[in-house]
Write a structure and sequence with these properties.
This protein has about 325 residues and is α/β, with parallel strands linked by helices. It contains eleven helices and 16 strands. The chain folds into two domains: about 150 residues, Alpha-Beta Complex (Quinone Oxidoreductase, Chain A, domain 1); about 140 residues, Quinone Oxidoreductase, Chain A, domain 1 (Alpha-Beta Complex), CATH 3.90.180.10.
Amino acid sequence: MRSYWMQMTETDTVLERRESPVPETGARQLLVRMYAAGLNRGEFLLGHGLHGKPGTWKAIGGEGAGEVVAVGSGVTGFGSGDRVMGRCAGAFSEYALMEAAEAMTVPARLSWEQAASIPLTFLVAYDMLVLQGRLKPSEWLLVNGVSSGVGVASLQLGKALDARVIGTSGSADKLTSLKPLGLDVGICTRKPDFAQAVMDATGQHGADLIVNSVGGTVFAENLRVLAFEGRLATVGYVDGVVHSDIDLEALHGKRLTVFGVSNKLRTKEQRAAAVPRFVADVLPYFATGRIQPQIDQVMDFARLPDAKARMESGAHVGKIVLRMPAAS
């Protein structure tokens, strides 16, 4: 089968397209003929430690959608021919193994490309906004870098939960393009200078929950703008800045909560634990069309290098999706 592998060095990433054997299904796993897979910037970021030691080659791709072709022992609820989506390793391949506990039935109204754009980003958004963030209707949600895949998912889920959403971006055009998705306030900036604009927009209340996918450059500014009992989620650091000052007086006096969102150190069981709740709480929004996945571009399998370059340039709004090759 055709698949993509990547080697991460100390300074760069190298892609390689290979012919690899179709993987064999293990216990509680599904073998899925992949039809589409979503790109995620964290997979390509140097220093995230997602690919082992520098110099190691690894099959890449972290989420996708396709058709079940085989099931392993102990699998219930799924069978050959089922349309599924989920997080899975090696998703940029014609076939990939998906843990049955991570698999979700694709809502009938969704295309393969739409389905492939959901599992990772929306499960992360659900973790930040619901499981840890405790977002309530009418609360103010601030999303740093709102045009990213996780940013758009947070905006869409936030609006489905009846929150009011503020987003920052360095592009006024991107902010305008997100208005139809419900963005209440757009702040055009790439600098940590948005606190006053947020306070003005919220009537001096501040943000109840903040999603920080930018990194350390905006961490201190986020603390400044949090409301009483506000929560700050850190989900990435595309700026490469992994250290920041913490205002302990604000943390203490405003009773703030600061938390991280990452699957890097979690067990398979821990990663899958939220999937049933996500299926119950969030998938109905996709099934009814209240949330429609925001896809920036769909690119053919051979164009993964181009898709990666577009993601790294920051030109996208929403998800970039790779379409798998037709059966040979």
